[in-house]
User: What shape does this take?
Amino acid sequence: MPRVAIMIVIAVAVNVYPALLVYTHIAGEKAVARVERCEDRQRGAGPCTGTWRDAEGRRHQGRIHGARDATGRDVRVRISPLGGAYTGGWAGYWAWMAAPVVTVGGLGLGLWMRRRLTRGGDAERRRPRRRGEPPPAQPGRAGRP
Assistant: This one.
């Protein structure tokens, strides 16, 4: 598989979860969830679980991302296409939002560098010259002053 294709596959794979987060926070279905339990961890609140109903009235149970110290309370959430519920805003997901910037920027830089390094033609012209070796002949320039 060519290197460019590998870079594109990696960039797409890294950006799937951030794209789902953006979709969830912008267009995810709104609901009200009841937080049933939050695990306490030594470094802050742990993951919370609870129940919510979708627009069709079906009851769902699962993890509620961003619901810290909300045991026994109702919180407004957005339902993810993957089945979880998210509350709060973008602040807790800044690292995931930086992933597209880093991967797309890295992909662009890699493609630019590849173009710069391979521009110019055949492998003979790209081969570094040894000290004292004359430059290779350039096709189409013979006889020009």
